[in-house]
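Shape is hard to put into words, and the shape of a protein is harder than most. The fold becomes a row of whole numbers, each drawn from a learned catalogue of backbone shapes. The outcome of that step, for a single protein, is printed below.
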Amino acid sequence: MGGCEFKFRGSSDDSQMTLQNFELISVVGQGGFGKVYKARLNKTRNIVVALKVMSKVKVIQKKSVSSVMNELQILSTLRHEFIINIISAFQDRCSLYLAMDFLAGGDLRFHLCKYRKFSEAITQHIVICIIIGLDYIHSNGIIHRDIKPENLVFDSQGYLRITDFGIARIWKPQNSHETSGTPGYMAPEVMCRQNHGVAVDYFALGIIMHECILGKRPYNGKSRQEIRDQIIAKQAAIADVPQGWSTAAIAFANALMQRKPQLRLGCNGPDEVKSHPWFKDIKWADYEKKLITSPFIPDGKLENYLKSNQLDSLEDQSILHSEQVQQQFLGYENLPQLNGQPACISSIVSPRTPNLRIQLKKEQ
């Protein structure tokens, strides 16, 4: 398992981290709670980071305190080359700040909108990156539950990383109440409020692959209910092999999109996914070390539709005067550690192992 040897906010030489340590360069994204900035960490050898700035007012208004706290707790246990990694976390009276790896290649949604579809070689590369990231996440006892193009970001070398762990969860057998996600990518068992496991992330991968092949999702609708009705009404499948594609690729996509999780490829873990005939010539170890040249290199001149590098104008922040409200964010800057070392969650998660006990253990 990947190591977790890196500094957390709260360690002795990082305890005074504030917004003043960063120079905001440009806006690279915008979400429901605020913006993500390309920023320079002046204190540490001019390292360029992605700085996620979240308004506490918006977080409270959207009833998402548990989500932002959960993302920090989850990310604090993980570190890997195929996911986004945190560098520091801190807060002030008005905002939460999360400094992460800066990835210069733009998200997969941006490139799908630009190119609409991808070749088999590029799609296979995208899928392999996601599988490696999911393998690591799942082996640490976590299901992501929001795999979608917006949460998959390219680095400058054309390798994808998984981001946004806001609704990720440590797996537990009874989780039918956990129904958050993005309609169109949500597995049927989540939409139908059933217990679910790692197979939900592989279902989302199948939907993404459908988009890369045909330029559209198999299930569309104006509401979650419309999409749910479509999923119940029909099994998504790519019936004909498009020109330039192999039968193995199409079979792989169809196997991921199976509605019943027990029939879905990936239900039994990553080994059955990696051993699919579509990957017979893939050297997984070389891929994990990023020794394979990506067939897709993002344009270095990504158009940024958000020009300002200024922080958002202030909202009505009167609710933040309450100490009870501020207590909800207590510990945001103090990530969980065991004996002075980051905690790593170690486990293999499978929906077929309902008695699985997920344990925290110190990384050796």
User: Anything to note?
Assistant: The domain at 108-288 is CATH 1.10.510.10 (Transferase(Phosphotransferase); domain 1). The chain has eleven helices and twelve strands.
